[in-house]
Structure formats: C-alpha cells, structure tokens
Amino acid sequence: MSNSLWGEVQSVSRSATHSFTKETLPAITLLAGLGVEGDAHMGTTVKHRSRVAKDPNQPNLRQVHLIHAELFDELQEAGFHVQPGQMGENITIRGIDLLGLPTGTRLQIGERAVIQLTGLRNPCAQINEFQAGLLSAVLDRDEHDNVIRKAGVMAIVLTGGRVCVGDSVHIKLPEEPHRRLQPV
Length: 184
Hints:
single chain, M1 Pyruvate Kinase, Domain 3, 13 strands, globular, pyridoxal phosphate binding, catalytic activity, Pyrv_Knase-like_insert_dom_sf, MOSC domain-containing protein
C-alpha cells in the first residue's frame, strides 16, 4: 500500500439494516456526530448489536467503517471474491495505508466531510458465513506474533458532507506522540 498523503474514494455503501453487506451507491452523506445518513450504525451511541447488548450507552466510535481497496486486491490474489461494500464498509479508499495511521488521524473526504479515526475493525466469525476462510485471510501476525487486523478502520464524523466515488482523501495526522490504532 502507498503511504501517500492523499487517496481516492473507490466506493461508498450503506445499509439501513444490520446486514453484513451494504449496498454500493454513487454517493453517501456523512452527518456530524452521527455517521452515514440512512445507515443502521448511525447514531451517537453504539449500534453494533453485540455492543448494544453489553452497554447501549457507550459512545459510537464506529460511525463510519473504511477499508483500503488494496485489501480486496490481496484477497483476490488469495482466491476470494470480495467487492466493495460486501464486508460492511461504508467507504473504500485506494492509496492510503489506513491500518498504519495513528488514532486521531483526520481524513478530509471531498470538499467538506471530515472524519476522525477511532480504531481498528475487529472482524468476527460472521465474516466466514460470507465466504469460508475469509476471517483468517483478514487476520495476520507480525514478527512478534501480535495479531494484525486488516478488515479496516472505524471513525467518527466531525464535519458532515457528501462523499462521492472519485473524491480525494487528504490526511491530517494528530500531534505526536502518535498512538497505534487498537480495536474498537
């Protein structure tokens, strides 16, 4: 993956229901403090069903799910057939090492929308119901045997706006010291 200071939106998706796959669209609207308009995960408090069961009053740090398009290339090479939106992400971006960005990184998408990265998506066993073996394909280990989660990052919406396929994405890193993204 490129380590550039910009990238490009390859796909946008949303689903009004808690389905694994989201419908791809030409554009979505991000709402400040809430998430993707019309998406089941929109709101100030958690919407992911397992998190709601634990504590429905937790802040929603998972308003927007992003995946790097390069993951789909990697999965294709491994024999999987996964298209944007099929892993439940809202925005697919090419050209940015999303997993390597620190917590608190801001991404300006298009002319107006700004999101802030809160953490990594922690993929669950449901991903294997979509395609057998996919869970192990989106998990890896580093040289110290730490788990690497490759299924995308989560964010909150700071400034709302319309996000379209083809929009540019610009990175603004937080002040140092940087903190690695952790599962949220």
